[in-house]
Structures are given as C-alpha cells and as structure tokens.
Amino acid sequence: MAEGYKYEYFNVTFPAEYVAHVEINRPEKLNAFVEQMWLNLSTIVKRLSHDSNIRAIILTGSGDRAFTAGLDVTAASQGTLSQNSSDSARTATALRRHIFEFQDCITALEKCEKPVIAALHGISYGLALDLSLACDIRLCAADTRFSVKEVDIGLAADIGTLSRLPKAVGNFSWVKDVCLSARIFGSAEAEKVGLVSGVYGGKAEVVSEGLKLASLIASKSPVAVQGTKEILNYSRDRSVEEGLRYTAVWNQAMLQTQDVKDAMLSGLQKKTPKFSKL
C-alpha cells in the first residue's frame, strides 16, 4: 500500500493495522513548508480520508530538531507574495485566492474522515500551530517550543491559528498574549492551557505514544469513530440544540450499522470485536 503514497517532502508509512503515519520530510530546512508541501499534504490527507484500509492517522516531523519551523519565508517571498500588479484590486484578488487555497489545504486535516493525531517535538512555530490545531489530538515531546510567529514577519496569521486556537484552549487572554507577542512557550505551558493533551520525554516517546493511541482508535468501529469526529466538529461551532439535532439526523442512519450489533455481542461474549472496513 505504501507504494501508492509517494509524495515529495513526505514519508507515508503504515506501521500498524489501519494506521497511517505521515511524516513531514524536509529536515535539512527544519521541515519548513514550501508551496508544494502544503499541496502534497492536502492530497495525501484526502486520499487517506477515503482509504478504507485507514482508520487513524499520526502526523510527525522528520529529524530531531523540528516538527516544522513554519513557512519557508524565503521561498514564499519569491513566489505568490512577490507577484504584484499595478492594480491593487487585482493583486488583492490573487492574494485572496492564494490564501483560500492554503487554508483549504490545512483544513483538509480537520475535514478528514479519520482522526488525525499530531505528535510535535522541537521547533513548532507558525504553521506548526495551524497544522496541529486542524488535527483532532495534539501530543508533544518535553522539548517542544511553540510560537505563533506571524507578527514577527509582519503578518496576521491567516491559515487557521487565529480561528482555531481560541476554541482549542478556552483562554482568550492567553491566546492574545501568545499571538500578539509571538513569544516562545514550552510544552508545560501548552499542557497547562490545554493546547496539548499529553507531554512525553522525547520525540521517540511522543511518536510511540501517538502510534499507540492511533492503534487504539483504529480498533474501534469506523462508523462510530467517523461519526464522533463529525459530530464533535459540527457541534463545536454551534449551539447545543443544533448539535443535538444534527446528532439525531446522523445517527438515524448510522445506528442501523452492523457494528452496533457486533460490539454488543462481543461485550456479552467478552471478546474483542472485529469491524468491517468502511
């Protein structure tokens, strides 16, 4: 199966049953992103989303120094950002389209039908927050250093952090603190505010824990897991009443799955259930 997932700047492997491991692979540049990388990541995630052999995904960065240092500013300055028209409206239109495309590539992680676990380590700046906040679960190594870096390069972060971070941590004062200052903060502070749900000794340990969690999720009913992610994401941005109504509509179909019967029967028989591919 790995032969079908050959993409520049990424290693895609399948370390456990129903689990995909997507590794950002540009360690010589601290895994900093050029345009082809976010396009490739989007393609990979969309393929895995519909791959019936996959039920959970872990996202990591190669090398010991960084998950990702963010956007490759040098490459960006020579690409779309350097293309200016004499007409400001036309320049603005091109930039808006470019931003929407970049946003969509990162949002692919959030829209993926399968849960995505981000295992962060080392330098995790700028785009690292955009990526991990679009994931479902965030774990990190003790050496992880975070920063919402964009104000240091003259930008308001525009790929997702400013929209997702307040919902992820629930402390708007802290969010403004780190976003307005671009200060670096560590794993202990990230865990304290709820940005990550676990801190582990080093990169190897956090990746190992991420794979264990991915394998555990992958052992569950894919119907139940997909539905749970969908309903949680839908309900996050809406009222309780709207969330309840959506849940009822979703489950009026999904409760008819064979998985419910198999899970209940396995519980009675004290056996581990095996679920069909979705």
From TrEMBL:
Gene3D superfamilies: 2-enoyl-CoA Hydratase, Chain A, domain 1, Lyase 2-enoyl-coa Hydratase, Chain A, domain 2
GO biological process: fatty acid beta-oxidation
Keyword Acetylation: yes
Keyword list, A-Z: Acetylation, Fatty acid metabolism, Isomerase, Lipid metabolism, Peroxisome, Virulence
Pathway the protein acts in: Lipid metabolism; fatty acid beta-oxidation; Mycotoxin biosynthesis
Superkingdom in the source lineage: Eukaryota
Location of the protein in the cell: Peroxisome
Keyword Lipid metabolism: yes
Protein name: Delta-delta-dienoyl-CoA isomeras-like protein
InterPro entries in the cross-refs: ClpP/crotonase-like_dom_sf, Ech1-like, Enoyl-CoA_hydra/iso, Enoyl-CoA_hydra_C
Gene Ontology MF term list: delta(3,5)-delta(2,4)-dienoyl-CoA isomerase activity
Family of the protein in this entry: Belongs to the enoyl-CoA hydratase/isomerase family.
GO cellular component, one term: mitochondrion
